[in-house]
Amino acid sequence: MNAINALPLLGRLKRKPDSHKGDYGKVLIIGGAAGMVGAPLLSGQAALHSGAGWVVIAFLSTNAPAVMQAQPEMMLRHVETIDFGDINPDVIAIGPGMGTSEQAKALLAQVFLMDVPLVIDADALNLLAADYALIGLLQKRKAPSVLTPHPGEAGRLLQLSNQAIQADRIASINALVKMTKAICVLKGSGSLVASPEHAPEICSAGNPGMATAGMGDVLTGVIAALIGQGVRNSLNVWDATRLAVLLHAMAADSLVNKGIGPIGLTALEVAYEVRQLVNHYAENASSTDTDGLAFLLDSP
Ligand SMILES: NC(=O)C1=CN([C@@H]2O[C@H](COP(=O)(O)OP(=O)(O)OC[C@H]3O[C@@H](n4cnc5c(N)ncnc54)[C@H](O)[C@@H]3O)[C@@H](O)[C@H]2O)[C@@H](O)CC1
Ligand SMILES: Nc1ncnc2c1ncn2[C@@H]1O[C@H](COP(=O)(O)OP(=O)(O)O)[C@@H](O)[C@H]1O
Fold first, then answer.
1. Residue 218 domain flag
2. CA 256 to ligand 1 center in whole angstroms
3. Which CATH number covers residue 199?
4. Ligand 2, residues at Cβ distance < 6 Å
5. If you measure from the C-alpha of residue 149 to the centroid of ligand 1, how many angstroms do you get, rounded to a whole number?
6. Which ligand is nearest to the CA of 223?
7. Total of domains in the chain
8. Can you tell which superkingdom this protein's organism belongs to (predicted)?
9. Which ligand is nearest the CA of 147, by number?
């Protein structure tokens, strides 16, 4: 199986002198029911630090903050006060901390009908697993969809135990792709990425310091940010997804190499480190996208 080796593609995200925030994508994140408001905040902070032009969070909780003092750049709304069409996002990430209420289910069905790339995570995956009609809507989507299950969520989707998922991860991701007709990331040690058009690729970076709450929420934000930047910078959703998986894991490795973790590594620290890696590879990648190995070996 091939390892993900797409870092030179980050050269496409190098900032042009006369560009503006609209060139780097508007990310809408939907999630954050009562008690889990932190999850979409982590996704939003990760998206911002990975280069998203704008980040809007639509919370389900009515008690969510109207502004995050530590990150006032993000626009925070209650989901019932906004019109997704007016926001006109370049990419939507749905699921972090969303819960599985009827309201959450209706929102998922609503975004499935939108012609916008989607990142489907956490409780959005649990809702999918519980309702075959939603899988039907997902399969019919024209715009790309990315699913990011951990083995527990993959097990719910495929009606298998965690152990069965882990016993044959390649078969598991192939079954997920077949079931959803979407790009799938099977998270965990050696994350796999596959799509209906692409055989599984493995992420050879990453470490057990990543086994901490919020790390998946950060990955969702990084994927959404790269998809959003890709829209006007020739990076397709497949490449954005596999790059995000690799950068997220490399960022955790880079921090551990500096003595920050593995024990006590936090998800937000990984988001900040992703920023450093994105800039390094965007600046140093060859415009011809060749010789990825050199970039893999040349970490900052
Ligand atoms: N700050 C916050 O508000 C946070 C909220 N979160 C939200 O909490 C909700 C529940 O998500 P969780 O993922 O915690 O709960 P889940 O019940 O979906 O998943 C946890 C279980 O999945 C299995 N699993 C996960 N990774 C595995 C691996 N690598 N190998 C084997 N088994 C594995 C294990 O059985 C584990 O107990 C989601 O909505 C999520 O977004 C979490 O993202 C954590 C942070
Ligand atoms: N032992 C490990 N080795 C490599 N990566 C890991 C390990 N444990 C967790 N990860 C990574 O950390 C992230 C955890 O995501 P997830 O379980 O969804 O967390 P959360 O729901 O708390 O946000 C995934 O990207 C996963 O691949």
1. yes
2. 23
3. 3.40.1190.20
4. 122, 150, 187-189, 191, 206-208, 210-211, 213-217, 219
5. 10
6. 2
7. 1
8. Bacteria
9. 2
Domain span holding position 102: 24-280
- pLDDT category, 53, cuts 50, 70, 90? very high
Residue 293 predicted with pLDDT over 60: no
Task: State whether the beta carbon of 151 lies less than 6 angstroms from ligand 1.
Answer: yes
In one letter, which amino acid is 188?
G
Q: Is residue 81 part of a domain?
A: yes
What CA–CA distance (Å, rounded) separates 111 from 76?
Answer: 18
Distance 245 CA to ligand 2 centre (A): 11
* pLDDT for position 299: 42
Name the closest ligand to CA 163.
Answer: 1
Averaged over 211-236, what is the pLDDT? 97
Residue 287 has pLDDT above 60, yes or no: no
Between CA 167 and CA 179 the distance in angstroms is: 19
Does this complex have an ipTM over 0.90? yes
Q: What is the mean pLDDT of the chain?
A: 94
What digits encode the pLDDT tens for the residues 89-113? Answer: 999 999 999 999 999 999 999 999 9
Q: What is the pLDDT of residue 292?
A: 42
Is 60 within a domain? Answer: yes
Q: Is residue 5 in some structural domain? A: no
